[in-house]
Write a structure and sequence with these properties.
heterodimer, A: alpha+beta, Multidrug efflux transporter AcrB transmembrane fold, 4-stranded antiparallel sheet, 18 helices, B: Multidrug efflux transporter AcrB transmembrane fold, Hypothetical Protein, Haloacid Dehalogenase-like Hydrolase, Chain: A, domain 2, Gyrase A, domain 2, 3 domains, 13 helices, 19 strands, 22% strand
Chain lengths: 407, 522
Amino acid sequence: MQIFVNTKYDFVKYRFWAVAFSLVWILIGAAFYLKEGVNWGIDFAGGASIVLKFQNQVPLNKLRAELTDASIQQYGKPEENSVLIRLPEQHKETDYAGQIVAKLHNDLNPEGAGKFDLNFQGRDGLTELLMQDDPDHKGTGPDARAYYAQIAESVVAKRSELGLFTNMQQVVSTPGVDTGIASVLNQKVHLGSFNVLNQETVGPQVGKELQQKAIWAVILSTLAMGVYLWLRFDLMFGVAAVVCIVHDVSVSLAFLGMIHGEFSLDIVAALLLIVGYSINDTVVTYDRVRENRRRTKTRATLEEQLNLAMNQTLSRTILTSGSVVIVLIALILFGGKVIHEFAWILLIGVIAGTYSTVTIVPAVAIAWNRIGGRKHDIAGPAARRVESSNPPPSAPRAETPRKRKAV
Amino acid sequence: MNRSLWWKIILIIAVLVGFAAAVVPTKNDPEPIRRGLDLKGGTHLVMRVNVGDALLLEADQGMESLKNQAKANSLPIPTTRRINPSTFIATPPAGISAGQYETIAKDYLPTFDMSVTPEGAMQFKLKGPAASSIKRDTIDHSVETIRNRVDALGVTEPIIAPESGNRIVIQLPGVDDPARVKDIIKTTAQLQFRIVEGTPGPDTKTTLASVSDSMKNDVDILPGTREDQLGRVAGTEFYAVRKTIPVTGTDLKNARVQKGRLGEPNVGFSLTPGGAKKFGELTGNNVGRRLAIVLDNKVVSAPTINSRIDDQGVIEGSFTTQQAADLALVLRSGSLPASLTTLEERTVGPSLGRDSIHQGVLASLIGFIALVLAMLLFYKGAGVNAVLALLLNLVIILGMLAIFKATLTLPGIAGIILTLGMAVDSNVLVFERIREELREGKSVRASIENGFSRAFGTIIDTHMTTIISALFLFQFGTGPIKGFAVTLLIGLSASVFTAFFVSRVIFDLWYNPERRPKEISI
């Protein structure tokens, strides 16, 4: 199947509309940031983030009463009985999430005091518990430890499979649990109301460092891109590329502001990828401009050259961006909540990258060319002959660099 | 078929087989591609080593040895005080000049710079190189101790690495009880045996009052748990213990959990020959007194010495089995030279990791199938060529991950499928060029030739830009994001090979010079 064969769209004509559209979009995003502030993720803001999965419905009121300064929200679908707890920074380096989890464990499981909470503690603790009672009379040597460790391992594996245990029947039906072990478990084990899916603490120092690192990484990679393209092509294109990258990143960030998404490490990763990838369409187009220049014998303004190259590469641009968009949509729909926002930002960035290739980059290049005396126009051989009686100052000079580049 | 084509095919098959073999699990290596913490579950910790502790200790030892040597040389003993972690001031009694201590300072405090203050006191400042070598040693020693403890816990493939800024990064895959592991890692486990003076009291003042006047300056007041008649914890009480510490944790040879008379867990220890000699002297000279067993500046227990003990003993306290086991573990693995502060912790429970891997793989499969369908739809016969190149690219990425022992993270899985989406670009560039050449009326042979040669420069440029940003990503990222950058770098490099070299060979194979096909399905 072939698409966009021999098209002759006049992309250049619409560039001012496009610039206006992008500016409006970015301004709307900026307004969201001004109104609601940046939703810094834990990586940058510091503090603690905890995800708990409960046996039954999440005891929201109890949690809110326990943790007055926390933001508490549902995690995933309602039937997953999971909750995300975010706590603000403590201004000192402590094991904050761990302390909160321990406190919740005590307060939400009053009936389990002194017992071993199998929804909370792990394999090694269970091994010790079994070693102490030694229901299968294995003694105290390393063989006994290995024996009980293996049983503990399979019990904990079963818990991971289920998410968490809701009744003792699930525990004692684990393969390897015999009646002796089952009776010890029934006696000493308590099934607490929640299991910790995820717990994170980021101290204030680390958060600040990451913020700086992230900003520098984005700025430096953008500049590196500009320098690479300046060396490979020319200064006009290097500048246009940097403007294009700034545009793509701003559009993506504006979108993040509109959905009030969390600014996390993953988002920075997405932005860095946008910096490197969204420029590809632009590189392909400009590559074509350069190639056409070498071959063209007729007179062509930069506007005409850009339009020609954009039309020639249009089907490739759509197909390639389309491939990545397909993949990103698959990630958004099926990839789970951990990479959801990451995939969304990439999607917006890739679309913005394709769009800016046919709008923003020509706008910058044309403006540069007009201000700089139209050095990038081609005065074809026929034209030169006519103009030779009254040569424009730029025409002969424009010829020399073109020849050099063709080598 | 010509010979160079044969060689190319052999090369491609060798690459395919080599990388595929790396991914196949074997008995020795059941998991050739390591899963990252976010997929496997586990804990990532960044801890700061409070190296100031070690400097403090050095200054304390300096003060001690200055006093001891003054005594040995029949000089009046100066009073000392610390003014910052690495500097202390020693004031000799009135009428004694500081100069008399210079030889001692030179011989016994070589790591300190001594200067005389206008008031006639001596200021000892830890030398710069000495301080930095103490810092370095402290970090190395901490890494070593943490590694011992983590190994004793049986964590497989932990990563324990020092970082700049006195930090240690600890990654513990598969750990399912982070609270306990953190406790074990962070316990300084500085064990001391010290003689108790006076009687323990409910607050520091009462305790100090019970100490005889001559000893008042030579004791430290430390907290300990008070137990009732039945041995249950019933509050805190304070002990006055002598400042001299004759026996410490470094004198231990071994420690293990054992059961007491009532079946309660306690920790039995044995001492090294040198330690046993010191312990024998300590207990032999103090029969009838109480011996405080001090762990991290808390009195764990203070039994009365009934007779001389040489090479072994028991630490009793109100321990649970697990606490006793953990204490034995940290004692065996040695003490940390300085305390640790948690700067960052990320723990992923095993069930979340399972969900993530399922969703990541599902999304990638669906994305891959969609890519394959799109290629076949748009390029028909040549689409098959692109799909083969993609598959080979996938094998190379997975193989590289296995060979370099890189870890696969959730963003890494996303990175693989995203890389394949990007790698398609190289094929598209070539195919679109071939189509253009065909439209211009060139022969099939020439179109393929020109398509590849004309697209080459463009392919290099588009790859370079993405590779540059992936390098920044790698430099910037931690853990999962590094994993993403790695898959991206490998995949993009591989796609130059697959889309350019492999895809070309497939076209050459298809193009039969004798038949000279007039049409190509593209």
